[in-house]
Design brief:
Length: about 350
């Protein structure tokens, strides 16, 4: 058996995931259920041999030392993300099929300001939220809007790869950290001299990455990135902490927007939708950042005052969804900061 044949089965079964572990057969996730593939359990030796058919010995050696690795696999026209790790002293793997199609901004039901922001030519657009809040899907939808409407040179630095772009009007190059380039820092230094128009950095993790991102934005590129933060105010505070006080003015000059996102269960239980808090870096906001006036209550007031420009607080977004009947009262109450704003039920 080769790993390639299991990837082919994933496509045939329309499985979202494949789990490989010693002592059990290959297990597919189909329509949310785990489905074992008969007939026999994999021995540790068989699992090692299976992974060797697709992964380099260097990668496997790293995994055997107890360090998780992530690699991108391809079969036919489908792309997969493979996580390899140790469990009970043996190698194991979880393989996920990557979406073959990027949803449009319209399909995502995002506010019109998202499409407007894709016309920005330079600066930093930051999308934040907790893990699993759909940040990456939102960013790649904005990037693909640019890909469909402008002739630009787009680079992405991702860890791991979640979507695969197809070149349309723009030329898109995707680089995976640990596979195509050593680190975000190395990747940004490389991209800096590669004629970038638009850059997506998977996450602002370190002071050096944050600094390079802002310097690239100031030099004329449109930079998208992500952080794990619950609110716009949290994200601004984290970014300032990463950058340090001497670069506060640089942030004030280069920031274009901060978007905080949460995924909510729809009232009809037909999936989930994104609720967004949106801060746009108007001259007033820029001056607030420069002056250190970024307390949560001040930013909330500024977002409320900027509604006609497309800004909104998370409470505004939640109340709007509730008024439209898109989310339930229970969902609105559980996420609202000020539940007193909820109309009597």
């Amino acid at each position: 058996m080769e790993l390639d044949s299991l990837l082919a089965q994933m496509t045939q079964r329309k499985a979202s995931d494949l789990h490989l572990a010693a002592g059990v057969p290959p297990i597919f996730r189909v329509d949310g259920a785990l489905v074992p593939a008969p007939p026999s359990n994999l021995t540790p030796e068989e699992l090692d041999a299976l992974l060797q058919t697709a992964l380099s010995e260097d990668k496997l050696a790293t995994a055997r030392l107890g360090r998780d690795i992530s690699v991108t696999l391809r079969h036919a026209d489908q792309t997969f993300r493979c996580q390899v790790f140790r469990e009970r002293g043996h190698l194991a793997a979880a393989i996920r099929v990557l979406p073959g199609r990027i949803p449009t901004l319209e399909e995502m039901h995002l506010p019109p300001i998202f499409e407007t922001l894709t016309h920005t030519l330079r600066g930093l657009i930051l999308v934040v939220g907790p893990t699993g809040s759909g940040k990456t899907t939102t960013v790649v939808s904005m990037l693909d809007e640019i890909n469909m409407t402008r002739s630009e040179r787009i680079y992405t630095l991702e860890d791991p790869l979640n979507y695969v772009f197809k070149t349309k009007l723009s030329l898109v190059t995707q680089r995976v950290i640990g596979e195509d380039v050593e680190s975000y820092e190395r990747g940004l230094l490389s991209i800096k001299d590669a004629d970038p128009d638009v850059v997506f950095i998977g996450e602002l993790r370190t002071p050096e990455v944050a600094r390079l991102a802002l310097e690239m934005a100031e030099a004329g590129a449109l930079v998208f990135s992500q952080m794990t933060a619950d609110t716009v105010a949290d994200a601004v505070a984290q970014l300032l902490e990463l950058l340090g006080e001497p670069r506060r003015q640089l942030l004030a000059r280069t920031l274009k927007a901060v978007i905080a996102q949460r995924l909510l269960v729809r009232a009809d239980r037909q999936g989930r939708l994104a609720a967004n808090e949106i801060l746009l870096n108007t001259p007033r906001i820029s001056q607030m950042i420069a002056d250190g006036q970024t307390q949560p209550e001040l930013l909330a007031l500024a977002m409320e005052a900027g509604q006609r420009l497309g800004m909104q607080t998370m409470d505004d977004a939640l109340l709007g969804f509730y008024a439209e009947g898109v989310i339930s009262r229970e969902t609105a109450e559980s996420h609202l900061t000020d539940t007193a704003r909820l109309p009597p039920g």
